[in-house]
Amino acid sequence: MDDGERVFAGLEDTPLLLAVSGGPDSLALMHLAARWGGAPLHVATVDHGLRANSAAEAEGVAMVAKSLGLPHAILPWLGPKPRTRIQERARGARYALLVAHAERIGAKHILTAHHADDQAETVLFRLGRGSGIAGLAGMRRETRLARGLTLVRPLLGHTKADLIAICVAAGQAFVDDPSNHDPAYARGTLRAQAPAAQKLGLDTLALTRLATRMARADEALEAEAQRCLGLLTVTSDATGFAAPLAPLAEAKPEILIRVLRHAIASVAPAAKTPRLDRLETLGAAIAAALRAQKAYRGTLSGTRVTLERDTMLTIVPEAARRRGRPAVEA
Asked: In whole angstroms, how far apart are CA 100 and each of 17, 106, 110, 149?
């Protein structure tokens, strides 16, 4: 199996949209995909309009795509730009533009050039924020997006040095976005501290290995949580979720937390996933109430959570006038 077949395994014969900037990572992705040629390929470059030369860089990508025989579109981020949380909002705008374009051209997968060094930075960043197992699993190869689209990161097994080497071998010039090294942003700070982290053994290999192991553990815990959900006699409809929790009275905290997360998501699927610390607080309160055979009342993520003394758990949408109030115990 050559590199292209390995990188793009499972993506054959379906239209793909490659998100390509003028940097070495995504240009290498485009060259690899063009060389592979195992699916209809489309290329898009998002022009955020945040730097004076961004339009010229997008046109440069268009020229490279044309030389490779690939259709290309420039997707401009129009309108006034935010003054705060710029990178976060630019990321949101980028994916919104890519999703809309993918739908227009009939692509089912959007491919980005996230690589092993990005994965290591993600794990280190989340480690510093005290993330749980799912967070330390880092970025997954595939993530479901809106309306049936899938975001695919096929280069997580490649380092940035690997991708630069691909560009060099192809005679491909590339640009370096200065914001990648700006200490005003979290990623820039992490990159500046990389040498110190490496001295502590926190290099790309160690951190990506950690992500792989955490992903494996997360998968096992999710399977157990689903098994435990299957033990419950669940009544779930448009009005809410209900089930007696007696079968999970001895469940480990991590499993109970995951069961509660799934139950809340079934009631409020559009809501943002609750923060782990808040789920942990809810899980601990529910577990304590189960042990003491007491009732519990609380709120989380736009839902009202009630545990009766007979262990019946109900989760319903929270009344609008009460939304956002802190959880309370009966």
From this structure: 11, 10, 11, 10
Is residue 155 located within the same domain as residue 278?
no
What's the total number of domains in the chain? Answer: 2
Q: What is the CA radius of gyration of the chain?
A: 23
Q: At residue 232, what are phi and psi to the nearest 5 degrees?
A: -90, 145
Residue 171 lies in a domain: yes
Give the pLDDT of residue 179.
64
Q: What are phi and psi of 117, to 5 degrees?
A: -65, -35
CA 195 to each of CA 188, 208, 305, 311, 321: distance values in angstroms, whole numbers, following the listed order: 13, 17, 47, 53, 51
Residue 110 contacts residue 17 (beta carbons within 8 Å): yes
Distances (CA, A) of 5 to 10, 36, 43, 91, 117: 9, 7, 19, 29, 22
Residue labelled with tokens 């110190």: 196
In a domain, 220, yes or no: no
Question: In terms of Cα–Cα distance, which of 113, 165, 103 is closest to 139?
Answer: 113
**DSSP code, position 151:** E
The CATH number covering residue 105 comes to 3.40.50.620
Residues 6+ apart with CB under 8 A from 200: none
pTM of this structure: 0.87
Q: What does the pLDDT read at residue 165?
A: 97
Q: Is the four-CA dihedral 193, 194, 200, 204 of positive or negative sign? A: positive
Q: Report the C-alpha gap between 175 and 191 in whole angstroms.
A: 18
Written as six digits, the tokens of 141 are 């190869």
Series of mean pLDDT values for 10-residue runs along the chain (330 residues): 83 96 96 96 94 91 97 94 86 94 96 97 92 96 90 97 96 82 66 79 94 98 97 86 96 97 91 92 97 96 95 91 50
* Domain membership of residue 309 as a residue range: 232-322
Report how far residue 125's alpha carbon sits from residue 139's, in angstroms, rounded to the nearest whole number: 12
Cα separations in angstroms, 211 against 8, 124, 199, 288: 21, 10, 19, 32
